[in-house]
Specification:
By secondary structure, this protein is an alpha/beta fold. The chain has ten helices and 15 strands. It has helices at residues 168-173, 223-238, 256-270, 296-308, 317-323, 326-338, 360-365, 394-401, 407-418, 427-452; strands at 4-8, 32-35, 38-42, 47-49, 51-53, 58-65, 88-90, 132-138, 146-152, 178-183, 193-197, 200-204, 244-254, 279-283, 373-377. Helix 4 (296-308) crosses helix 6 (326-338), helix 8 (394-401) crosses helix 9 (407-418) and helix 8 (394-401) packs across helix 10. The longest helix has 26 residues, at 427-452. It starts with a strand and ends with a helix. It is an enzyme of class 3 (hydrolase).
Length: 453
């Protein structure tokens, strides 16, 4: 399928969806009712009562469970369907966020110099039981056949939640022509763990993105992406009940969420069936190195996790990690992530051979992708917030960013930026350009060129 692309360099916080209007769908089924003047939607496995803002007539349904709690034996598994719940569930409180981890804090890359740093978790409500989504609907009494925007939050695959966004604004910015859905997904080590199998180390997403070489028998790779895909399937199955049209779904993400959007564009080799969305938007896409699951860096990260949780000498390290207390596991998660080079992220998607079958550039080069429309937007200096103000040497910065390049390759790459001393007069300017172009701008431009071939 040929995908149509628009490329911009401005990101306002408004709804950037390119949607065409069409005639309303026939009513899916009369499973929208009202209780005490508030809307109730029957999803089959649960009934959720939302609330309506009388000033905007936008109804919100918060903390809808779209998957079973990924706890206990489900910690490192693919998401499962939620159990049936009796009675009416109040959908009026924001959900707990998934376990969080920040970006790197080290001035050097741990793949050059080893020891991980310890870092305390922020004081914020978190839980492994975090697979929830929020739905915002305009004029729910008459909503029918509306476009749907599904937003995937950013945070470098290691942090973020849906409660920190002005979610109803998406509905308002669409002039009440779209339903907005916000999802949470497993993050950091909780989204990606792998298991040791004899001499080989296999990563599977702990809660989100601790990775591995192939789909292993004991767990699931790229669990955070599988959560997102499960939420998109939920939208296809249930959004009609809220007045949405599953054939008019646009997925939109920012930073790591935009990187996730890219993963869904290439998922299953660009042949996801049935389709999950029609259009896609990426804002400041974070395109981080995507290794095979058994590459040296994912292996290093898994070893760090098992060492920090006292699982390294266990006969079955995977079983040991499942048994580790969630807070202890997240302490290890934070220790590993904070030891990374400054504001880089280590628990990210991998090539798993099933959901992500190959490097995204290979899939895009074949022009076999999911979706019909892609809008990508980015900023000029994307690297500004991810670069140490105290950088003093452009060549060393390139070395820290790309530890596996040869000395000659590092010198060559750095020379491209030091030569621009008129437009990039300082080491900091040059380092910001390196960071922004390698993680946001140039790779997205490359993907766009591949799709426009």
């Amino acid at each position: 399928m040929m995908i149509r692309i628009a490329l911009s360099v401005v990101i306002p916080w408004t709804l950037l969806v390119v949607l065409a209007f069409s005639s309303p769908l026939q009513e899916y089924e009369n499973r929208r009712t009202f209780r005490n003047s508030e809307p109730v939607v029957d999803l089959g496995y649960a009934k959720y009562q939302g609330s309506t803002d009388p000033s905007t007539n936008i109804s919100s349904f918060l903390s809808i469970r779209y998957a079973a709690p990924p706890i206990g034996s489900l910690r490192f598994q693919a998401p499962q369907a939620p159990a049936k719940m009796n009675g009416v569930q109040m959908a009026t409180s924001v959900p707990p966020q998934c376990y969080q981890a920040g970006g790197g804090t080290s001035q050097t890359n741990p793949f050059i110099r080893n020891p991980p740093l310890s870092r305390k978790r922020g004081i914020i409500q978190t839980s492994e039981d975090c697979l929830f989504l929020d739905v915002f609907v305009p004029d729910i009494e008459t909503a029918d056949g509306l476009h749907v925007v599904v937003f995937i939050h950013g945070g470098g695959y290691q942090q973020g939640n849906i409660g920190s966004y002005p979610q109803a604004d998406l509905v308002t910015d669409s002039q009440n022509h779209a339903i907005a859905v916000f999802m949470q997904y497993r993050l950091g080590a909780f989204g990606k763990v792998r298991q040791l199998s004899q001499a080989s180390t296999y990563f599977k997403n702990i809660a989100g993105f601790l990775a591995g070489p192939s789909m292993a028998k004991s767990g699931a790779l790229n669990a955070g992406l599988l959560d997102q895909d499960f939420a998109l399937q939920w939208v296809q199955q249930h959004i009609r009940l809220f007045g949405g049209n599953p054939a008019k779904v646009t997925i939109w993400g920012e930073s790591g969420g935009a990187g996730s959007v890219l993963q869904h564009i290439v998922a299953h080799g660009g042949r996801t069936d049935p389709p999950r969305f029609r259009a896609a938007i990426t804002s400041s896409v974070a395109l981080l190195p995507q290794y095979a699951a058994d590459d040296p860096i994912p292996t290093f990260l898994y070893d760090q996790m098992t060492n920090l949780t006292n699982c390294s000498n266990a006969v079955d390290t995977f079983a040991c990690l499942i048994a580790v207390d969630a807070d202890a596991l997240n302490n290890a998660n934070n220790a590993v992530t904070s030891s990374a080079f400054y504001e880089t992220y280590v628990f990210v998607p991998v090539v798993d051979g099933t959901f992500i079958v190959e490097r995204p550039t290979i899939t895009m080069d074949r022009q076999v992708v999911n979706g019909d429309v892609l809008l990508s937007v980015t900023n000029t200096f994307e690297g500004s917030t991810f670069t140490l103000p105290s950088e003093t040497n452009t060549t060393d910065f390139v070395r820290q960013m790309f530890p596996f390049l040869t000395a000659k390759q590092i010198d060559t790459a750095a020379s491209y930026y030091t030569a621009l001393n008129t437009t990039l007069p300082t080491v900091l300017n040059q380092s910001i350009a390196v960071m922004g172009e390698c993680s946001h701008v140039s790779l997205m431009a490359r993907y766009c060129r591949l799709l426009l071939k």
